[in-house]
Amino acid sequence: MKDVTLSTEQVQKFKQDGYLIIENFLPASQCELLKEKIKDVIDQNLNLETHPRTLFTTYQANKAEPDAHMMTDYFLNSGDGINFFFEEGAFSKETGELACSKYHAVNKIGHALHTDVPEFKEVAQSEAVKNVCRSLEIKKPTLPQSMYIFKSPGLGGEVTPHKDNSFLHTGGTRLLGLWIPLDDAMKDNGCLWFIPGSHREAATLFMNRREDNTGCVFVGENNSKQGDEEYVAAEVKRGSLVLIDGDVVHKSYPNTSSRSRNAFTFHLYEGEGANWGATNWNQPTDKGTFVELY
């Protein structure tokens, strides 16, 4: 793993654009290791006979409430364990049976890979990640969640424009996304797209956990632009690290290629002065999955 200390120019670029690409963060061998390990995670933890068939869908600008998976107990209780969310086309509408390989059927696995699986913990809690935080002057980096995103060929769907701060509320302190593609991420297989500089406008839409814990509700107005004209494609080689400001608008298109676009991603927030309130869908538990890196 590359030992990263950001240069003055890189810090300035991140502040300017709201995202930053750092190449060669993970070697190819470690990318392959993580891809093989996630298959073990599926084999050891996913029983299709008993597992809830919770489909992952993303927020649509014309909807007043979150999509169905965000309204389930399974989602609300997924913050401190290994949980599986399926692609919309994973199961046959006629028979209800799996319509593809189980490795392709899963959209994402979350949200505690950073504590529960050593190979992913080694990356998320690495000295390299700590050095990135130090470079950005984060005093108390706290890691609340992590995910493995599959974006399988022909199945990996669209992720609509959004700001991460809409979904994780820190009470005003910095939120930082770290996104590591384990395959080359290009336009045809679903790379990220950003609106540079859009982080200067704070999120005004928030997904809040209901007081009665029966799901989530959106509060506010969506200010993540839906048009294509301002977006810039962030095509990156596998093993790169993409830093994502919590207020920068980003999205990705469906994977229309014959190649996978696996990625390991996690979030950090500035714990000093933070107020991780009860409105967050992900709440700390006694399992200790909210990790202070230093």
Tell me what the structure shows.
- Strand 8 (205-209) and strand 9 form a beta hairpin.
- The radius of gyration is 18 Å and the shape is globular.
- The strands form three sheets. Strands 1, 2, 3, 4, 6, 11, 13 and 14 form an eight-stranded antiparallel beta sheet that branches. A four-stranded antiparallel beta sheet has the order 5-12-7-10, with no helix packed on it.
- By secondary structure, the protein is an alpha+beta fold.
- It starts with 7 loop residues before the first helix and ends with a strand.
- The protein contains seven helices and 14 strands.
- The model has no long low-confidence stretch (mean pLDDT 92).
Q: What is this structure's SSE topology?
A:
Layout lengths: L7 H10 L1 E4 L5 H18 L27 H4 L5 E5 L15 H4 E6 L1 H4 L1 H7 L2 H9 L5 E9 L9 E4 L12 E7 L10 E3 L10 E5 L6 E5 L11 E3 L6 E5 L4 E3 L10 E8 L20 E2 L2
Antiparallel strand pairs: 1-11, 2-3, 3-4, 4-13, 4-14, 5-12, 6-11, 6-13, 7-10, 7-12, 8-9
Could you say which structural class the secondary elements and strand pairing correspond to? alpha+beta
Q: Number of DSSP strands?
A: 14
Instruction: Write down the overall geometry.
Output: globular
Strand content: 15-25%
Q: How far apart are the termini?
A: 19 Å
Largest beta sheet, briefly? 8 strands, antiparallel
Rg calc: 18 Å
Annotation field: number of helices: 7
Unreliable stretches covering 5 or more consecutive residues: none
pLDDT averaged over residues: 92
What's the helical proportion of residues? 10-25%
Order of helices and strands: HEHHEHEHHHEEEEEEEEEEE
